[in-house]
User: Fold Flavin reductase (DIM6/NTAB) family NADH-FMN oxidoreductase RutF from Flavobacterium aquaticum.
Amino acid sequence: MQFDIQNTESSALYKLLTGTVIPRPIGWISTIDNNGINNLAPFSFFNVVSEDPPHVMFSTVRTGNKNKDTLNNILDNKQFVVNLVTEEVVEQMNTTSQSVASDIDEFELANVTPIDAVFVKPKRVKESLVHFECEMVHHYFIENHQNGGACIIIGKIITMHIDDSILLENHRINLESYKPVARLAGSNYSKLGEIFSIKRQ
Assistant:
């Protein structure tokens, strides 16, 4: 079946895209507002985009033409932390996906521990095994939208924190210890499952 973008409802497009572009890594983004209130929210439109130098991207939807607190905070102070999601913290991550007032600290809401970053103001999630401290270098609001669209954030990684428990020799990651979780569609998530290798030609 062919779906013409102009003649397909946005809700249907969302289901088709999130159901086919899978699995998606989850960027658990922590920010801080100008009053010092912590914010923590998950985004599955997220990935690494460069290693030379290291950059990540994520996008945040603007339902009803309104910015999420994450976006407002980053536009204000240009800083955020990416905390990566594992099986151990997936329930807490899900708790932070709900919409709450901007004066609610999602670290407290999800019962996770805020710890200081080294170079940026937003806190890191202590229970996460990987943190990327980031500075925003670019943002772009998607044009020609019907209900607010989205904003893409590109951030330069200033420093990385990786727990010793998942590090192997030669900077490889122990996937059995790491146990990352990926986003599927609806309420569904996935674990790594079977891993296979194909040598590059």
Remarks:
- The chain has a mean pLDDT of 95.
